Amino acid sequence: MSPSAALGSPIFLTYLALAVALIVLGGIALLVLKLAGRNVDHAWNSYRGWLIMIPLVFGAIFLGREATIVFFTLLAIFGAKEFARATGLYRDWTMMGVVYLSIIACGIFTLLPAMNGAPGDYGMFMAWPVYAISAILAVPIVRNRSKGQLQILALAILVFIYIGWMFGHVAFLTNTDHPYAYLLYLLFAVELNDVAAFVCGRLFGRHPLRTNISPKKTWEGALGAVGFSLLLPWILYFSLPEFTPFERVLVGLIVGVGGQFGDLAISVVKRDVEVKDMGALLVGHGGILDRIDSLIFAGPLFFHMSRYFHGL
Amino acid sequence: MTPDSWNYETAADLDLTLSERLKHFPREPDMLVYGTRLLSGALLRTWLCLYHRLAIRGREHIPAGKACVLVANHASHLDTVCLLSALPISRLHRAFPAAAKDYFFESMPRAVLASIVVNALPFNRETNIRQSLALCQRLLETPGNALILFPEGTRSASAELGEFKPGIGLLLAGADTPVVPCYLSGAHAALPKGKIVPRPRKIELTIGTPRSYAHRKRGKDSALEISADLRAAIESLRDSTG
Questions:
Q1: CB within 10 Å: which end of chain A, N or C, has fewer?
Q2: Which CATH superfamily groups domain B19-241?
């Protein structure tokens, strides 16, 4: 991955063209709705957010492997910070220091070559939770504390494993043989799955999906999104040509079902903590975690599926 | 079985955007902000020491481990950083200079400086003065907090000491909070109102002995008396240093 490789990659250029087309189409659709007298303020905020995020993501991937890994590691760090601010874990700076360092270590193992020279130290990356959890458990012992520590330990381990390590798998996709194809497919599929769920829910939504977690989501939206995600590997055939039909179905389920589980998993946290969004970084999108929630769940599943069938 | 609920202490500014968070007070402790503040604090101290040859007399008068108020004459933006430098750097995040909300918290660059570098308390000097004073009072309930106030209410255009506003008296009457009068000289010559680039003038900070107005009754009259008393104390510091 490098700027010249990106410009020479038909896959990268196709996704770039797709992104530009979606931005333009979205803009036109919003304009038409506005001219038709519909209230599009909320959608407009969300659209403006995409105008910032899409160039950032493409910029990082265009610059190359290192920039992409740094970008996703920063997302993980600030995502972890949001989670910690919402749950109150961020008040424990020592524990947060250990969590941040563990997440940075994930980024370093993604970046550095392995002993055999392969890009990214897969062995250390996969083994890292052992070291990180040991370090997290050592914190209250070193400080000779017990009161309230179970909550801090549980939150710290959850933050590291879920937002640091599992999400870190997305960055590790840069070390595969098809970084542009896998990474951009995953990002597109997950975000379009979100959009499909939203649109299907708005158009056909009747039966609530999970009343105690996210009352606005419906079965119709969820099933519509799964249907769309099952089709997508065939629509974007150029990206995953080596995948068999069975693998395409798996990819569709991972993105369609996994993506929505990721969304609901963060919603469970938000509901229990009683916050509406995890942050307010981008107007119309909430915090980082509100944006990447589906990716955190679907990313590592997609990574391990593609690794199982096609290697790194 | 559902175990007893955990107690989550969500950050109070969670749903605010980054720019709104700058204006939110009291601030949530943030690792990045504390790090930036410590670093810029160390740099500013070095700058004051080398470029302005800052001399601080009477540092021992500032009560340690107790909430206190520092009051000083105000003729320059440098005043605030000089007073912050008189406190141990470990107390930097517990020191709150009251800064005019209409000046420091309306424009973005100033709000960044005021909230991250200076840790300023947004003081509404036009309306709701009582509310701002209540905020000050709440800060002084935590031992170790230091409130930095300029009772003139604005930077004096000359080096002369202006009239003191009665707000400081309202805050201190009947409160068991030590108040430390401070006198700054040279800051006006180094960076007067309206100038941007500081000149290499020597700055001297004289810190007087703490006073207390715990025995005073709350009210307008005693507020005026306290303001006048503090002004006299700062004048006598000025005269004693020549």
A1: C
A2: Glycerol-3-phosphate (1)-acyltransferase (3.40.1130.10)
